Give the backbone structure.
Amino acid sequence: MLVYLIFGGELSGSGGWAKYVRELADFLTSHGYNVKIIHRLGKVSLNDIKVNLANEAGMRHRRVSLPYLASHFPNPLTVLLGTIRLVKEFKHDRDFLKVIHAHDLPSSLLIAFFMWRFFKASYVVQIHGFPLREWKIKLLQNNSFLGKLMWVLTKILHIIYVKLIMNSSVLVLVNNSEVKSFYKSCGISLHKLEVMPSAINLQEHEKRLLPRREARKYLGLTELDDISLGYIGGLKPEKNLETLVNAFSDFISCTKTKAKLIIIGDGPLKSKLEKHIKERGIDRYTYLFGYIPDAYRFLNGIDIFVLPSLSEGSPLSLIEAMVAGKAIIASNIPAIREMVEDRKEALLFDPHNPQQLKNLILTLYNNPKMREKLGENARRKAKQYDVNVIFQKILQIYKRVWVL
């Protein structure tokens, strides 16, 4: 049996989508499936999906520019070369049972759709996150004419994507029920929609977590430092990091503590965030590390994990924090409420309200037992997101769309 995983970006990327594809490919290979990954510009990776991320640290920062604003549009070369390559692979593998699994809306969906047109091949498209909402946040953040124009084009393109899905033989996997309801309202029938949250290899992640002392040393924390807060992820508009910085600044002001804020990640808002941290006068309390491969290894070095996002699908960083047994503060948005329950596995807050976030930080600062209890509950809940649970469901999905 053969699975074609189509991914429009770089397979070695640091984002959640790329990591998900690598985890899925590894799982499928370990279960006896042949896997071919067709990614950016028609590149093909076979079963050996181990990639080297060590040299990518300097590649993550992109300025807010026209290429960045258009980065979610289909890449014509990726679509063309990916389609040509997949046609060749399809003909070569004509005797295999096979399935096409596309992993984003723009480029991968178009490649899979063309395969349906050429070969009547059914396929699965997996929509990670809540694309339209995230694109809106990205494009309209500065209220610029260019951003507004790109938003209009984006909405038109999204209508086309939905039409392609409606008019082809496809199953759509979405990360959460909110996104499922949205695409149902767009006219996609319920029998085509399946909720499939993110997944990680719990055993591998637990094994690679560094001991607390070693992790804190790497992060520059000492025994004299007080409580530490951490965020791991992209520095992008939808991640809402200014709210985290504002809340942490107010927390420092009212407690006079030696607390530290650890931010690991890179992205187009890095310069803006650095400037905001200095303006709030907390640069000596805030460590902005940039991109670190497999940053979850350092989670034992922090006390509270904070995810202040305005929009999410099924965030891998949240699952990683749960596996590490961290006390979690996260946005009170539908996607996160579907994963953790307020006051049980996490404390949830209005992502537009930095004062509320500050109060929750203060609550956990003053209550170590609550931090411990939240972490224990989160670790137990994380077992639901193991690859051996989630990816088994994907195998059942594949059986519905096998083609010759």
